[in-house]
Here is the input.
Amino acid sequence: MILTLSDITRLESKGYRGFYEKRSGFYRLININGRCVFLSPSNLCLIYEDRPLGCRAYPLIYDEARGVIVDSECPLRSEISCEDLYKGLHLLELVLREVELTYNYRINWGLFEKSAIKLISKCI
Here is the structure.
């Protein structure tokens, strides 16, 4: 999961340390054996109330080729409600705007909008 600087600052202010690394030009949550460092053995998020924005938007993710999609690896992908979809799109937009500023990375906002409309059309 890509982290924004505000995610890192917020989590560090809560006392968390050593939870991220820089990979492929982005700060990311550390995974241990393919699992988030904050995921408990019983699959509960240990920092749920303080989790990064990208985690809050999940299972919505931004794919450079397809735009906004529901992550096919999420076991609950078919159960996302329209309310969660709208909230997730808003949060994902916030994440991507900060990613642009933090990492000097350009988001294809036309693709974002087109793919978001496609997702939302299932709710109309």
